[in-house]
Write a structure and sequence with these properties.
single chain, 100 residues, mainly alpha, 2 domains, 4 helices, 2 strands, 48% helix, elongated
Length: 100
């Protein structure tokens, strides 16, 4: 089990599988939006790109350790609505690739 990030990781796994299938059938294995690294240099100014890099991750609240024993309660409690929106903005607009 992967934990609270499992949806994001599942999407990433799906993209990797799609690229492998594309290569198998003679494609180049690149996603249709793989040029976004070049695109950001043309569309977004340097200052805006740096702003996106500096956005810090919002930590999710967790059930206190003392309340985790002898029950099946969720440990990762999720985000408040405003924190969820800010975290989504950070992820959806960063234009950075995961380093492998």
């Amino acid at each position: 089990m992967r934990g609270p990030a499992s949806v994001v990781e599942a999407v990433a796994d799906g993209k990797k599988a799609a690229m492998a299938i594309d290569v198998h059938f003679g494609g180049d294995g690149l996603a249709p939006n793989a040029f976004r690294d070049e695109l950001i240099t043309m569309v977004v100014s340097y200052d805006e790109a740096e702003y996106q890099k500096e956005r810090k991750r919002i930590e999710m609240s967790h059930l206190p350790l003392a309340k985790r024993f002898r029950n099946f309660n969720e440990v990762a409690l999720g985000y408040q609505a405003n924190a969820a929106v800010e975290e989504a903005k950070r992820c959806l607009h960063c234009y950075l690739r995961e380093q492998e």
